[in-house]
Predict the 3D structure of the following.
Amino acid sequence: MTSQTLASLDDTELSRYLEGSGLRFCVGPYTYALRSPLPIIRYGLARLYADHPLAANDGFADFHLSFRANGLLDFLRGHIHFQVDEQSPFAAIPKAQAYAFLEWGMNWCVSVTLHEYLKLHAAVVAKNGVAVVLPGLPGAGKSTLSAALALRGWRLLSDEHAMLEPGSNKLVPLPRPVSLKNDSIELIQAFEPSAIMGPVSEDTHKGSVAHLKADLASDSHDLARLPARFLVFPRYQAGAKLRLSPKGRAESFMFAAHHSFNYSLLGESGFDSMSRFIDNLECFDLHYGSIDQAHSAMESLLHGRYGA
Amino acid sequence: MRPSVADLLRNPGTAFSLSLSDWDLLVPQLRQTRLLGTLRSLLAAQSDDDRKIPQEVWRHLDAGWLLHQKQRHSLDYELQHLVSALAEVDEPVLLLKGAAYLCGDLAPAAGRLISDIDILVHANKLPRIENVLSSYGWSAGAIDPYNERYYRRWMHEIPPLGHVERGSTLDVHHTLLPPTCDVAIDPSTLWAEARELQPGVKVLCPVDMVIHSAAHLFHEGEFDHGLRDLWDLDCLLRHFVKTEGADFYPQLLQRASDMKLLRPLYYALRYASSFFATPVDLAALQSMGLQQPSSAQIKLMDFLFVRAFTPKHSACRLSGTGLAEFSLYLRSHYLRMPLRLLLPHLIRKAWMDCFPAAASSKN
């Protein structure tokens, strides 16, 4: 593997790869190979993946993704197909939404294909070598909160998958841009005007979607696993008063297991891993009405001053 | 020359000397043909040292294996429920295809994935069986009335049932091919020869199992996992020739002849041996009555089926694949029913695809 990053490619080289043999880059332990003729994809990658390591062209990629127009119908409609392994498992999409689909498809690959780790549906952030897992239902604000933390010096380990090494409390970093939806886009832009955002995809099935470059820490692409100490369930409610309250382990277990991608697939080993993981964590509910509040609550958690 | 998936399954030992760039092309093909777990189990049988395969490749093979293990457990669980459900109407569970291989631990089982559970039931008990399955949570859900009528009138199975809680899919067949096919399958003879695996659970006898696998594959119109289905046949043939002895092939031929299914059996033997070197003496079988199609027909079928059994990947794609796929799709419909039934159906389906809302509201 080379230590070059995507930023070392100029625009011409980037399109040569994307329109030719494929651009190969690393996200945590995985390698993606991507082909695309679309300028919006090239633009988004150059903005958001600049610091990701490139992978060898003659090596092994875990996931082969491509955007391809399938025939005249796609061409006339301005649609394009998103392909995985040269297959088209999804319906055609408007070209303008391609970037959001790329990010979504990259998640999908990790969610459905590999089972070496127990995968929870959660964001993961870290500071001072301690990881905090943030599970949450859609709309609970886990992405907004992790985006804000990444912009305030925390390291983002993952926006979507908390990948647990079975039988340990160690999490595998999978740093990717953070997906922001609708109001969160402006909220984060206002929170940090220098934040780097990718293309905005309007009118997707989740509304407007844009991604934030979140690999801002110097060790963002470090591959070493990090121990988790806290499991925090964020819940955003406009105008709510800040409340950080301990949560029962049994309840936390049930929620995390229910929102795991492969807990039931892993069977007994999934149960053992989840039990051991939860047993070594402190679990909290975090209700908040503004991200500044939530940020300070997360800082106090690290310094052992919570629950006051 | 890049190795093919078929070569790899036939000679798994060659996997240990593949380069990362070989694997880069092979893993997508293995995933697409649902053979990751199968290769994983073949490699584990070759060597207990999994470090001989690069770790970043092994984790993909292993994911296929884990999914297979999970499906095996789920199948045992579903089977308990099915056995008690069907016992209420005094019907055993006769498993077909993948579920039968897994449950009977037959040769293709190692690492194999299944997408649903296929069972055979007595046609005259269907209404009672549907009732009892419904009380156990299996239902067809919302289904377009035209599709429902089509299934009921022309098909060998009822619309697929999904379990309301567990999401498992059950395909209930009352015979092996659509009754409109020009074949002579008598379900009562299938039942008479079926073998018991455990109390309340049966599978087809070896010759019927091979014939069903062949008939199913060579009447198909889609070949997404055609190579896997051909691999099933290779495994079954190698397995049964050992367990059933020298009588196996003569019996297989006799039975296929009785059912008017010699042609799909011929194709099964031809393509299994050409892709996987299945030890079959085609010349000897021909002297026993296995007729070979004309040489022009063989040329055409070779063109079609070699493409159907080649994974859909740029590393191995042959020219003319699109044409072959389309021809096989038409062929499958033509085999399924006479043209006087087929043409109105295809026109209706095309109409429903173009105007989904209009089509269903008229029913």
Remarks:
- Chain B has one domain: 5-361.
- The longest strand of chain B covers residues 169-173.
